[in-house]
Design a protein that fits this description.
6 strands, binds zinc ion, two-stranded antiparallel ribbon, 12% strand, alpha+beta
Length: 187
């Protein structure tokens, strides 16, 4: 039985969704969406369509490995946000995780490009895929679209998909506008 993931999902690339598993509730409490095996299982089920392997094949008991990779991913994304180099420890974790599972590009019969991972262990494949994607993101053209949500108390990241987007979601946009309205009329 997998319970429904209770945290926020923003339809972002996997590295950003992993970043966003550390989130804040509207009351301001900090939550870890992958704090244990059951929580990780729920998150994996929620992002299943973006995973290179079936979500149930992943060993959720290795949630510590996902949290360790998340530390490196967060460090890399925040370095990109600040236009700074990725700290050596995070860089090593990303490189080692990516290298643990080599991959190749395949031309599929339908003319599309597929990525094939050369490992037996589905858990290792997912960790490597996230490391690969993180490296591609922070070194690629979309790194400059990375943003942290501007709504009060929100700690989520997202890729800006239009020039004026400042919030991770419409509901955060509404909260930010309400907070501004309140500040204007009550001071
Ligand atoms: Zn937000």
């Amino acid at each position: 039985m997998t319970t429904r993931y209770p945290g926020p999902l923003r339809d972002q690339p996997l590295p950003i969704e992993l970043h966003n598993t550390l989130y804040a509730t509207t009351r301001g409490d900090r939550c870890d969406g992958i704090a244990d095996a059951a929580a990780l299982r729920a998150w994996l089920a929620a992002v299943a369509s973006d995973l290179p392997v079936p979500a149930p094949s992943i060993d959720a008991d290795r949630s510590a490995a996902f949290r360790a990779l998340r530390d490196a991913v967060r460090s890399a994304l925040h370095a990109a946000l600040d236009d700074k180099p990725v700290p050596p420890r995070a860089r090593r974790t990303l490189n080692d995780t990516a290298a643990a599972c080599p991959r190749s590009t395949q031309l599929a019969a339908d003319g599309t490009r597929r990525v094939r991972y050369h490992a037996e262990d589905p858990t290792q494949i997912v960790l490597a895929a996230i490391a690969h994607e993180t490296i591609a993101l922070v070194t690629g053209p979309r790194a400059r679209d990375l943003r942290l949500c501007g709504a009060p108390g929100c700690v989520l990241a997202f890729l800006k998909d239009h020039p004026r987007r400042a919030w991770c979601s419409p509901s955060c946009g509404n909260r930010a506008r309400q907070a501004r309205h309140y500040a204007r009329h009550h001071h």
